[in-house]
Amino acid sequence: MTALPVRIGLVGCGRIAERGWLPAIAGVEAARLAAVADLDTGRCRVVAPDTAAYGSAEELVAAGGVDALIIATPAGSHLADAQAAAAAGLPSLVEKPPTPDAAQARLLAGLDPAPWIAFNRRFEPALCRMREQLAGDDRLQLKLTFKYRRASWQARVVADEPLLDVGTHLIDLARWLTGSDLRRVQARVLTASRLRLELELDRGVATISCANNRPYYEGVAVRDADGSLLASASRGGLVNAVRARFGSKGENPLVESLVGELTAFRSAVRGGNGGSLATADDGVAAMTGVEGARRSAGLGGAWVDISPNLLHH
Q: Using alpha carbons only, what angle is made at residue 293 by residues 169 and 254, rounded to the nearest 5 degrees?
């Protein structure tokens, strides 16, 4: 007998919900959108006009009829929304960044049940293959790049700097691809529009570059200790940006990874294997890296050691 689909409550009806989560939920047969919530209930009617709508996570949870929550509100609301889910015993998947700072990330990880964190780049097929390919290598050299135009996303509320917006993705990717933890971090550039970090990990080093005022481009390149290229993957770039501007828009490329992430979340909700889903402790580690980068910037770009005790709640 076919298992019943997981009934999803989507909290937050901003751009990531509209362009990412709603099409992803529609693309997973084992999941069904059961309810939505947003402080602006008018947004609920815009993005999901035929779905039960509420003004908060608490109201949605109190109404019942859902098996799990996807929390896609601004980061400052994540802890309270996840607490509402945990109080009702509901699993939740919290969008990145997990919280505005490491202290709140530790509180998030202390919830029961603890949420998962939506670092969806773990579900990019090319990066999944890359991780398998790198499993036997040590002293890796990673270069991770993420450029985008904030204006093109047309966020309704959030205007995070690159470190919090996409830097958390790349810090998590560096840990996940290498299967190792952070040792120390250095902020070479940290502004409202640009970011360059150097990371030292148990299995290598990583350079992270981000900008929020450039044509969309994501890239990952990995070299061995001698500098020989082991693997690379990229998406976007100037040529593709021009094609997208004058051609068909099509489906947002993040939907494919969200479908994979949602499929893993559905499995975890039903007691199965969550696969590559990021845990709340992974969220703590990413935010500890963010905290270290901010400290480094305050120290003029000095290296900041990351205590292993800080990487878990």
A: 10
Q: pLDDT tens, 70-117?
A: 999 999 999 999 999 999 999 999 999 999 999 999 999 999 999 999
Cβ atoms of 99 and 73 within 8 Å: the answer is no
18: helix, strand or coil: helix
Helices (H), the chain: 15-16, 22-26, 41-47, 57-63, 75-87, 102-109, 125-133, 150-153, 162, 168-178, 238-246, 254-269, 280-298
The residues near 96 (Cβ < 8 Å, ≥ 6 apart) are 117, 118, 119, 168, 169, 172, 283, 286
Contact 99, 240 (CB under 8 A): no
Q: Decide: pTM greater than 0.85.
A: yes
The encoded tokens of residue 287 equal: 């935010």
To which CATH superfamily is domain 129-250+283-310 assigned?
Answer: Dihydrodipicolinate Reductase; domain 2 (3.30.360.10)
